[in-house]
Design goal:
- The protein is α/β, with parallel strands linked by helices and 148 residues long.
- It has 5 helices and 7 strands.
- It has one domain: Alpha/beta knot, CATH 3.40.1280.
- The chain has a 7-stranded parallel β-sheet.
- Helix 2 links the parallel strand 2 and strand 3.
- The relative contact order is 0.22.
- The mean pLDDT is 94.
């Protein structure tokens, strides 16, 4: 299981996802360009010392990512037709989350084997990226009996 962030824009969200990966033993892929400088203090402030406990791979673009990560992609999206809480995950899935302002482009969505949504109230649009990652990863690890 891995988490991939497609062109994330907010350093604090990336830091929180890195900490999540460290705590749950899941590697994190960052697909560039990033919307902030990698040395932004907010990344380390949010990830704290956990940043040294997570396997992070940065990819210069989508093609570079797919060249080394050919596995099934599970897209987290508000447009997903399958609930996160259905039995849908496999141990080698890559959970992909798009940029905060726009999600993923059509060609990335088309490359995903599954698009899942997190059920939320109709009166709101979406969860914070890091919160969505935590819910999805926790459920994926539970379904695959891979929790630490």
């Amino acid at each position: 299981m891995r988490i991939a962030l497609y062109q994330p824009e907010i350093a604090g969200n990336v830091g929180a996802v890195l900490r999540l990966g460290a705590c749950l033993g899941v590697a994190v892929d960052l697909i560039e360009p990033l919307g902030f400088q990698w040395d932004d203090a907010r990344v380390r402030r949010t990830a704290m010392d956990y940043i040294d406990e997570v396997d992070i791979t940065r990819h210069r673009d989508w093609a570079s990512f797919r060249a080394v990560r050919p596995g099934r992609l599970v897209l987290l999206t508000t447009k997903g037709t399958t609930s996160l809480y259905d039995d849908v995950f496999a141990p080698d899935d890559i959970l992909i989350i798009g940029k905060e302002s726009a999600g993923v482009p059509d060609h990335v969505a088309a490359a995903c084997g599954l698009a899942v949504r997190i059920p939320i109230r109709a009166a709101v649009r979406s969860l914070n990226l890091a919160t969505a990652a935590a819910l999805a990863l926790g459920e994926a690890l539970r379904q695959t009996e891979s929790l630490p």
